[in-house]
Amino acid sequence: MKKLASNGNVETLRVQVRGKVQGVGFRMSTVRHAHSLGVAGWVRNLDDGSVEALIQGPHDRIDQMLSWLRVGPPAARVEELASEEVQGDRHYDRFEQI
Predict the structure, then answer these.
(1) Comparison of pLDDT for 18 and 7, the residue scoring more
(2) Does some domain include residue 1?
(3) Cβ partners under 8 Å of residue 83, min gap 6
(4) Is residue 47 part of a domain?
(5) Strand 95-97, strand 40-45: pairing
(6) Which of 27, 70, 77, 94 is catalytic?
(7) What is the pTM of this model?
(8) Cβ atoms of residues 97 and 43 within 8 Å
(9) Owning domain of residue 84
(10) Which entry of 14, 18, 45, 90 is annotated as an active-site residue?
């Protein structure tokens, strides 16, 4: 990880997705979609059955990623998506499943 340049174009959001989102390829599909958009960060399963992601990139690509996360892969059923902006100085070089 690197320090963020003082560039106002990069946003970082923490996202939690609830519904039928585990056991349906949600994380792997999220990684693929993030790579296609050039978004950085990570995605992981939580013990409560939800999926959490940290997404970082330009505003327009973050919006595209959020739109995709509201639906997910074909086998998923997203019931709720919550997001919050994260302030910090970490910069992620890629998107990965953790």
Answers:
(1) 18
(2) no
(3) 13, 14, 15, 16, 66
(4) yes
(5) parallel
(6) 27
(7) 0.89
(8) yes
(9) 7-97
(10) 45
Q: Is 9 considered catalytic here?
A: no
3-state helix, strand, coil in the chain (%, to 5): 25, 40, 35
Give the pLDDT band (50/70/90) at residue 9: confident
Sorting pLDDT into bands at 50, 70 and 90, what band is 8? low
Residues in the chain: 98
Let me know if residue 2 belongs to a domain.
no
Type of residue numbered 54? L
Asked if 86 and 54 touch (Cβ cutoff 8 Å), the reply is yes
SS3 for 31?
A: helix
Q: pLDDT tens digit string along 22-51?
A: 999 999 999 999 999 999 999 999 999 999
Whether 94 is a known active-site residue: answer no
